[in-house]
TrEMBL record:
Recorded GO MF terms: DNA binding
InterPro entries: HTH_HxlR, WH-like_DNA-bd_sf, WH_DNA-bd_sf
Transcription regulation keyword on record: yes
Protein name: Transcriptional regulator, HxlR family
One Pfam family recorded for the sequence: HxlR
Domain HTH hxlR-type: residue ranges: 11-108
Keywords per UniProt: DNA-binding, Transcription, Transcription regulation
SUPFAM superfamilies in UniProt: Winged helix' DNA-binding domain (SSF46785)
Length: 149
């Protein structure tokens, strides 16, 4: 069954999920943020079927999240590297990781934790903040349609 694409909606969540809403795409971005760049490396890391990986990489390149470039070692292969748009997804992945650590693991169960490379300390938990810095609760955030101008 082919998925319905949601391209004309006012909802940025729906438009985002239209591109990165399947788990493989976000896992590819996660791996790319960790330095994975070759098709075979993605395939080995994720255990994804080659045809599915090909389709996901193609979509991520078409949408400007990844770009291809000649392999850095001078071989005939190509590498997939994140664009600025792709690197910006790191915040989304940090939020998912923090949510997963809080809600999906039992006390004492091993889990990966994102840390600041310099201090080796866990990242501060992301929170909703008003423009003036106040922490907001979910019920304090409302939706409105804004002009993009």
């Amino acid at each position: 069954m082919k998925r319905t694409r949601i391209e004309e909606t006012f909802c940025p969540v729906a438009r985002s999920l239209n591109i990165i809403g399947d788990w493989w795409s976000l896992l590819i971005v996660r791996d790319a943020l960790a330095g994975v760049s070759r098709f075979g490396e993605f395939q080995k890391s994720l255990g994804i079927a080659k045809n599915m990986l090909t389709a996901r990489l193609k979509l991520l390149v078409e949408e400007g999240i990844l770009q291809t470039q000649p392999a850095s070692d001078g071989s005939a292969w190509q590498e997939y590297v994140l664009t600025e748009k792709g690197r910006a997804l790191q915040t989304v992945l940090v939020a998912l990781s923090q949510w997963g650590n809080e809600w999906l693991f039992t006390r004492g169960e091993p889990a990966s934790v994102l840390v600041d490379e310099a201090s080796r300390r866990p990242l501060r938990k992301l929170m909703l903040q008003a423009e003036d810095g106040r922490e907001l609760q979910p019920e304090e955030v409302v939706l409105r349609v804004a002009n993009s101008e």
